[in-house]
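Structure tokens please, single chain.
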Amino acid sequence: MSNGQSIAKPVIRGLGYNRVLTVVDGVEQVDQQWFDEFGIEADPDAVERYEILKGPASLAYGSDAIGGVLNLLPDNPLPEGEIKGDFRSNYQSNNGLVNNMFKIGGTNAGISWAARVDYTLAHAYQNAYDGYVLNSQFNNFNVDATLGIHRKWGYSQVHASYFELQTGIVDGTRDSSGTMAQVFWYPDQNGGEPFYGLPTNQQLKSYTPLIINQRIRHTKVVWDNSIAVGQGRITGIFSFQRNQRQEMNDPTIPKTPPIFITTLRPLLTM
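Here you go.
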């Protein structure tokens, strides 16, 4: 998740990264838990409320939760016979952030449905030392949909989501005066070698990340079931996640990612 100026990760009692487990839609979120340049790859507008379990929760969730668990809970289905739409817009002056979200959903004859689209973009943010922090711009696109059936015997619900984040990587390079500089590469100049130069005002306020950037995509499908059997209940959550991270860090091949990591994770929770 982005806090509007940078990427943020949860910390519980001084522990973070792969010591704090994030649960989304009832299953473990499989993304980039390591290091602080990767946030939680979930749409904050799709979260109705948060639950925080502090301390060693590893007895229930495994060693990844030794610091605690952050549980992101989605919206509940709407009451029977109700259809509702929601539009939200947000603007932040520090980095020109613009966020627009539209959601529509309803329930009829025990069939619930919902769809949401969310888009956020921002140029470089500002601080007192650097002014605009070069290459801190980003854009984030999210879409998700839910379809479920609710009866006296219980419910069965499928939720699918797609998260895509493209963000610049701040490398901190500066010229002799301490001003942040960016990498350029023009094959017919400087002997074909990359070189650094001062950015223009247009580049500082651009919503498109510069040459050194990363792109993250997270696709997730969750099938949640709860069926009454006598005095008890059988529950099962089937999920599939695909996480892809591309890092463009070589200016001589700006559209070819030297780092390309794909993670697949099928999961059954009873």
